[in-house]
Amino acid sequence: MSVTPPPEVLRAPLVVEFPFTRSLGPVQSAFLTGLRERTVLGVRAEGGRVLVPPVEYDPGTAAELRDLVEVGTTGTVTTWAWNPEPRRGQPLATPFAWVLVRLDGADTALLHALDAPGPEAVRTGLRVRVRWAGERSGAITDIACFEPYDSAADTEPATDARDHDGAFEDPVTGIVAPARLDYTYSPGRAQTRYLHALAERRTVGERCPSCAKVYVPPRGACPTCGVATTDRVEVGPRGTVTTFCIVNIKAKNLDIEVPYVYAHIALDGAGLALHGRIAGIPYDQVRMGLRVEPVWSEDGRYPDHYRPCGEPDADYDTYKELL
Amino acid sequence: MTPDREVAIVAFAQSDHLRRTDDLSEVEMVMPVLHEVLRQTGLKAADIGFTCSGSSDYLAGRAFSFTMALDGVGAWPPISESHVETDGAWALYEAWVKLLTGEADTALVYSYGKSSPGSVRDVLTRQLDPYYLAPLWPDSVALAALQAQALVDAGAADESALAAIAARSREDARANPHAQLPGARPQGEYVVQPLRTGDCPPIGDGAAAVILAAGDRARELCDRPAWIRGMDHRIEAHSLGVRDLTDSPSTRLAAERAGAFERPVDTAELHAPFSSQEVVLTRALGLDDDVRVNPSGGALAANPVMATGLVRLGEAAARIHRGESDRALAHATSGPCLQQNLVAVLEGDPRA
Hints:
The structure holds two protein chains of two kinds.
Chain A: E1 12-23, H1 26-36, E2 40-44, E3 50-51, E4 68-71, E5 74-83, E6 96-103, E7 110-114, E8 127-132, E9 143-148, E10 162-163, E11 174-185, H2 188-199, E12 203-207, E13 214-215, E14 221-222, E15 227-228, E16 231-235, E17 239-247, E18 260-267, E19 274-278, E20 291-296, E21 303-308, H3 316-319
Chain B: E1 7-14, H1 26-41, E2 50-54, H2 57-60, H3 66-70, E3 81-84, H4 88-100, E4 106-114, H5 120-123, H6 140-153, H7 159-172, E5 190-192, E6 195-196, E7 205-214, H8 215-221, E8 226-235, H9 249-258, E9 267-269, H10 275-285, E10 292-293, H11 308-321, E11 327-334, E12 340-347
Parallel strand pairs in B: 2-3, 2-4, 9-10, 9-11
Antiparallel strand pairs in B: 1-7, 1-8, 4-7, 5-6, 8-12, 11-12
Helix pairs in contact in B: 4-11, 6-10, 7-10
């Protein structure tokens, strides 16, 4: 039992990526299909207000909105913000202005990017027009961005919204919104100590100073007592299979032949079981009470699996509290 | 609404708010704060009637990340527990409602956030409308900057006024030992114009906890409980383009329903991550110059995302505990451009 100073912090990249597949309601479908066809649609709310981008329910009254209208592809900046360093995924790779644009015929504003040479070229009230993307699929990014529009003939932004049936050939009914976030994960003190010990082919748990239970792997706290586990206790290397299952479906990207056994293993001295794969024995001969030992992975950072160690099976009473 | 049961914040603790905490897991960061509020009240974990936490898997980058932090509470055998996937101020709201029902007499509320592992500006884009906004990746500073420019256009603020808010917040934070940015500093370059580095909150990690107690239990646990006289939360329409970004009607309505306008408050802890948002909030709440705004330094001095709002409630309560305030307003926000807003009114008993 010893209390050691915090070891060197471990870090690893963690990338979370997910393509969200979302279905569209009738108004959203018409709007995004319209963008594909270079047409901007809004929806008429109660009281005649035209909402662009259109929503399916009135933001004030929750009334169902279905009366589509076509609005202009020119409009007026209602507020802006100059973005000197575009970030991944944003509409333009060079410095640009974020803008809210009230399109001609609309009563509300749409968020997008404005391609302008610099902040001095942007102001609230600036007249702008849509720059369409070359390839359009029925998404908000079918608008590549806005660009300044300085036609002297267009000083009166008075395009009225015109009724539109929202019908297009081959309407889009869903979008796929890819998302990716990058993290640098650090596991904290207890798990860092655990991982450092594993690299030395030792399994070191931590004991709760209150209830004396030994947690393997340690997470830093005893969930029963709510206090930090700090006393380090080497456990194993041998242990007992407390329960197990037979896996018959091959996991994606996992190079293990099925069927194989996945088990709860109570390492000697541990207060709870961890889980690991059992090999070196036919799957249908694995049993509760089987005594096992770790087989370390080639690079030695963690046990690849556990195998029978040849000892007689453990008596049920020795592990029944760890099931 | 006027609650028919007296409930008070009786203890508050927070971590030091730091740019990085790579040596700590979430539970390792949270646990000392939990122990501190229990120490203040003399309660043990087993004495707590209800526990509620607030955090976000998107900050952590892992699903069900709050279950690990729950280990720090001592949640086994199973306790009466809940979690909100937002700022801990809303966890406090849930706990308050639980105590009002009479099902519990004490509650532990905590929240935490580690912004350091990821890129919080990008992470927060994932809370936006997935059809029209999220595909454009408009980050949190960009959206706040659109709101700030709307304020400038409306004549409600200019860059020097925003700089003064940033300087005042960080000067006040000198007296806050937990603050990440104590002391005024240069405004720096534009992050997204018109917001400069100084107008934006620091990025960092931190945790906070409070204990709530009802009636006489509160008087036993605290010399001067911070009684919650009212609390309410309201939300704006989700589309930014239909909102008047210079105003916050949801804050005003929540404040009205919390009873904030019945009598003046002496203190306001406002959850304004950006200097410009303090302008919006003070206008929406009609706070005059007599009200001490963010004596803690506010979110501009420490912004542990998911805990910043709970810290506002805790800081306001702590001033009442210390006798530095008699009636305080605490505000928390969530979402882009002050999308959703919570207001609580806290009072101390008259001093002898």
